[in-house]
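Long-time lurker, first post. I've been practising inverse folding by hand and with some scripts of my own, and I keep getting stuck on stretches where the structure tokens seem ambiguous. Below is the full token string for one chain I'm working on. Before anyone asks, I'm not after the true native sequence, just a reasonable design that respects the backbone. If someone could post their per-position residues I'd love to compare against what I wrote down in my notebook.
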């Protein structure tokens, strides 16, 4: 039997902010000089992302990918036909209040295209602003499933949590009747993962149970022992935090890896050492790691990012896809008429750094391939390698609302 679990999603609980700004008027048939039928001289695009704050590393990955994606889609010109992309960058600091106030200011200044953010709470609040003010919003790596189908104005440039869970299910040959245990922290993040596993893998016939560890626990041995005693068919680990190394150590010491296949999500490169000596015993589901996709677009992205002195990582493809989507909206949708830009993106299929990628017309889910991976250690370096690719349709979420 193969093995599964869950990517440590880079999300923060949704914040119920409802702030409004007056939507700017626009006319797709006139440029900035009023000449009908002509392309605009420039289009303003506002990128809201975490340049600072707890998720700044993810923001940096997104930013580097966006630069590469814009260059790829415009052949390095920054121009879409005769239209210049005026892209401005704004730091949300991981703070929903800052993110929403920034979105309001940009909308008030006439911006009709917004993109970005890793933080789920910010993305949900900006999506609300997009609907209220009728502007296009292309979210960044924020993984919350609530963004999919939230409104007509919101798209996503990355995967969502359900795609992580569906990928985990691909580690099991037959989920029907399988005993799946979710091992997670007893907080909103952990409980959300239990719900996701029940909704996705439970729907395939798996029997779901959970081992939830209180957040103030520092000794993980009794909880790791529960896995051994339960003898599940599969353990799905969803864990985020500085104590991950201690948790994995307890798993190894108690023989949990001999008791059941254990799967978790492969996060960014900075986390690889946190698995300790258990790293090569874990089966990983992966949104992305460099070299996973093995196509020409990914090669371009990697080369571009490295030329800028950066390293491609977990969320670099999300920025790249956002760049491609922005160019598509301006090229095919005119860049000023929001309804036309929405129409140009709905159902759009394109070759991205993760292969053939589709913006699902029904709910704007981004259908993309996912990966199974393993880690191996040489000296002090941990390196991921591809076990298998999960086809886009096999990781796709159900259509929102159905």
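-- Answer (accepted) --
I ran through it position by position. Result:
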């Amino acid at each position: 039997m193969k093995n599964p679990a869950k990517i440590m999603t880079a999300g923060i609980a949704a914040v119920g902010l409802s702030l409004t700004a007056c939507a700017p008027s626009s006319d797709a048939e006139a440029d900035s000089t009023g000449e009908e039928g002509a392309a605009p001289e420039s289009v303003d695009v506002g990128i809201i992302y975490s340049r600072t704050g707890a998720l700044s590393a993810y923001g940096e990955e997104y930013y580097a990918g966006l630069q590469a994606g814009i260059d790829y889609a415009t052949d390095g010109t920054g121009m879409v036909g005769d239209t210049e992309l005026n892209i401005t960058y704004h730091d949300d600091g991981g703070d929903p209040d800052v993110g929403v106030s920034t979105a309001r200011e940009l909308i008030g200044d006439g911006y009709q295209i917004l993109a970005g953010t890793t933080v789920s709470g910010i993305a949900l609040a900006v999506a609300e602003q997009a609907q209220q003010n009728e502007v296009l919003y292309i979210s960044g790596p924020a993984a919350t499933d609530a963004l999919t189908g939230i409104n007509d104005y919101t798209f996503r440039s990355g995967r969502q949590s359900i795609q992580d869970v569906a990928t985990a299910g691909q580690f099991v040959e037959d989920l029907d009747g399988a005993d799946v245990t979710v091992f997670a922290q007893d907080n909103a993040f952990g409980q959300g993962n239990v719900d996701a596993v029940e909704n996705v893998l439970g729907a395939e016939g798996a029997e779901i149970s959970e081992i939830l560890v209180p957040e103030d626990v520092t000794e993980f041995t009794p909880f790791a022992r529960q896995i051994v005693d339960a003898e599940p068919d599969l353990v799905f680990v969803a864990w985020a935090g500085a104590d991950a190394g201690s948790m994995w150590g307890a798993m190894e010491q108690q023989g949990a890896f001999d008791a059941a296949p254990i799967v978790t999500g492969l996060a960014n490169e900075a986390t690889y050492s946190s698995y300790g000596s258990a790293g090569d015993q874990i089966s990983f589901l992966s949104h992305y790691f460099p070299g996973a996709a093995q196509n020409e677009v990914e090669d371009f992205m990697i080369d571009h990012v490295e030329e800028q002195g950066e390293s491609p990582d977990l969320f670099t493809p999300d920025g790249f896809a956002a760049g491609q989507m922005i160019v598509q909206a301006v090229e095919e949708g005119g860049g000023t008429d929001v309804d036309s830009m929405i129409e140009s993106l709905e159902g759009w299929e394109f070759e991205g750094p993760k292969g053939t990628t589709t913006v699902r017309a029904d709910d704007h889910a981004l259908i993309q391939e996912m990966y199974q991976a393993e880690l191996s250690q040489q000296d002090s370096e941990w390196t991921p390698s591809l076990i298998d690719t999960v086809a886009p349709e096999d990781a796709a979420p159900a259509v929102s609302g159905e």
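A couple of notes from the structure itself: The radius of gyration is 21 Å. The mean pLDDT is 90. Happy to go over any region you disagree with.
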